[in-house]
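Subject: Re: docking follow-up (NAP)

Dear J.,

Thanks for your patience while I sorted out the input files. As discussed at Tuesday's group meeting, I've set up the holo structure prediction with NAP included as the bound ligand rather than trying to dock it afterwards. The sequence and the ligand SMILES I used are pasted below, so you can double-check that they match what you have on your end before we go further.
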Amino acid sequence: MSLMQPNYTQTPPAVPNVMVIFGAGGDLTRRKLIPALLHLCNARLLPDSFAVLGLGRAEMDDAAFRDLMAEPVREHVGAAFDQSIWDRLVARLHYMRIDIHEGAEYERLRERLRELDSRRGTGGNYLFYTAIPPSLFAKVTGFLGAAGLLRETGNRWRRVVVEKPFGQDLDSATALNRELHRHMDERQIYRIDHYLGKETVQNIMVFRFANGFIEPLWNRHHIDHVQLTVSESVGVEHRGTYYEEAGALRDMIANHLLVLLGFIAMEPPNSFESSALHDEVDKVLDAIEPLSPEDVLRHAVRGQYGAGTLPDGERVTAYRASPGVDPQSRTETFAALKLRMDNWRWAGVPFYLRTGKRLATQHTEIAIQFKRAPKVMFKNTDVNHVDPDMLVLRIQPAEGIQMSFGAKIPGPAMRIGAVNMDFCYEDYFGNKPATGYETLIYDCMHGDATLYKHADTIEKGWRIVQSVMDVWAAMPPRDFPNYAAGSWGPKAADQLLRNDRRQWRRIPDTDGTETSTVREGLYTESRKPQS
Ligand SMILES: NC(=O)c1ccc[n+]([C@@H]2O[C@H](COP(=O)([O-])OP(=O)(O)OC[C@H]3O[C@@H](n4cnc5c(N)ncnc54)[C@H](OP(=O)(O)O)[C@@H]3O)[C@@H](O)[C@H]2O)c1
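The structure tokens for the complex came back this morning:
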């Protein structure tokens, strides 16, 4: 697997290829893909023999496409924009108008690619990127297959990056996998989850497996429970129509959180080879105890935001008032789950997952709470309980790792406060401009699918989420909206942990700084050790 190093000079450029983007006029291309290519170009990770062929419905030539990309890319790259790097990349951008619903059009595409190949020396290697609505993924790959564009010979490779969401439920995901497999091998399919391109997600594996001290503690003997939080402060913005069909469970838990959980909970793989890693993530998903309808009622919480006030004082409207959203919508904008694992390492250790929109702050983290010290030995002192230690892997913002533990508060009396040891990526490695797509695109060009999802992982993830979706569909929510925008979600989410005599970790402010060094006791209500 290729990790993006701060010093890229050791990393070879990608293999010559043409990157063909379906949906070249879309939001993803403008905001993420072309900026990611610019960052790769800046890091000299794009080969000299390289071209982008944007495909779209609009009639325009290469020059117009280059102009169309320039402004949004400049805007999204911000201060890191470098005109000389852009000039290098922009000369490689090409465009072709296409009706992607017409099989005959793919013959024209083949001709255009042949012409680009001979002009750029890209060796017949094509990376097809589906930056189009999910309903078109199967159709487009079907036409590519029929036109012979997915056929590989000799060293010439053909790969398809499939965007998310990958299906809407277990049946549609299975059907999509079946359809893709009709036209190409699994090893040619790159199902993307841009979360897996984030440095800190990859760092979970480095932290666990490159450091000898952590692995002996990484099990039920030492860990009390794990919390995964992906909180968004934004609402659905202009994506109301999409979100109505998705909801928090499908959009975030099925897509992102279960793979994060896989990285946290997996056994050490035999190697960093793609198949070894995927096998271990799959074993984690297999080990998650299936949720019966009763489990769903007790261990799953859904919510939808009403109007509210954000921490900065801004008043915002309810989800149901968003453009494209049904005024009586039953779509959840918040979901929390308690999952248990039926395996040797994690028996008895709950994993709590939560995600939502319009929450108090934008934050993604994994918090690992260790068991308390077995005995409070500070007899005849002011200390009558000690907070449990906690390790926090921050994915965003202020990417880094924080360890909270007890320390003596200076003074003649014996008092203990929780202090933080904090590693912040930016402090050590500087702030590298990145969209999360750089590593993934680069890896695909190298044929490294480690950070992509394969068919089994997708289906196993949907199987877990499907049991919740079924119960929720059968029992429409009666209390929506049930949390105010700017809060931490519905009360039932707090109750989910309170039932286990636990509570969600207090998430720091938006700037990522934890101001308080003395943490509030987590078990002040019960002060009982957890079993
Ligand atoms: N935007 C993001 O940040 C983001 C994040 C994660 C995943 N994704 C996924 O990435 C994909 C693209 O997202 P997006 O936000 O860029 O979507 P978008 O702006 O709504 O659409 C992308 C492009 O798809 C083409 N398209 C749409 N409907 C079409 C039709 N009926 N026939 C032919 N072409 C059609 C259009 O290309 P032309 O106008 O050029 O013809 C459009 O610009 C989606 O699958 C989305 O779920 C996006």
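A couple of observations from a first look. Residues 23-28, 31-32, 56-58, 100, 131-134, 163-165 surround NAP (CB under 6 Å). The domain at 8-163 is CATH 3.40.50.720 (Rossmann fold).

Let me know if you'd like me to rerun anything.

Best regards,
T.
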